[in-house]
Amino acid sequence: MANSSYTPPVAFAILPIFAFANAGLALGGITWADVTHPVTVGITLGLLIGKPLGIVGFVGIAVTLGLAQLPRDIGWPHILGAALACGIGFTMSLFIAGLAFEHGSGDYFNGDRLGILLGSVLSALAAFAALHLALPKSPADETST
């Protein structure tokens, strides 16, 4: 049986570093034009806004139609935080972008990866902020501030 003390470092450090290193994006030489390129902006906004909007929207439809109900002690801020975290989809996004742009002229090769990186980082930050505000604070957290 594997030692469970390895799980956090592997899950939160080694795997993300491995995925980032294999993304094939050289960060040196990235310009503001690269960041504001339509492909980069589109992918970034798709991960940061599109995925959460779709998730919250379909959860809302399911709840409204009576097909589902929110669990006790779970509200819409929690759903929003979880939906924002879904924008972190780094590995699958790289796979889909590779399929989408593999037959193009190659102009989008760095833009798609840059957009995925930006969208994933911004989604992680937004999810952290939303869940930090939505989740109850433990008594230990309140006494330390």
Structure commentary:
The chain has a domain at 40-136. The mean pLDDT is 84. It is built from seven helices and no strands. α3 runs antiparallel to α4 (76-85) and α3 (38-64) packs across α6 (109-134). With 145 residues, the chain is mainly alpha-helical.
- Give me the secondary-structure category: mainly alpha
Helical residue percent?
A: 55-70%
Find the count of extended strands (DSSP E, 2+ residues): 0
Radius of gyration: 18 Å
Termini distance? 40 Å
Average pLDDT reading: 84
What's the assembly state of these chains? single chain
Shape: globular
Number of helices: 7
Strand content: under 5%
Q: Name the helix and strand elements from N-terminus to C-terminus, one letter apiece.
A: HHHHHHH
Entry summary:
With 145 residues, the chain is mainly alpha-helical.
Topology, please?
Elements: H1 7-21, H2 32-35, H3 38-64, H4 76-85, H5 90-101, H6 109-134, H7 139-144
Keywords:
145 residues; mainly alpha; 69% helix
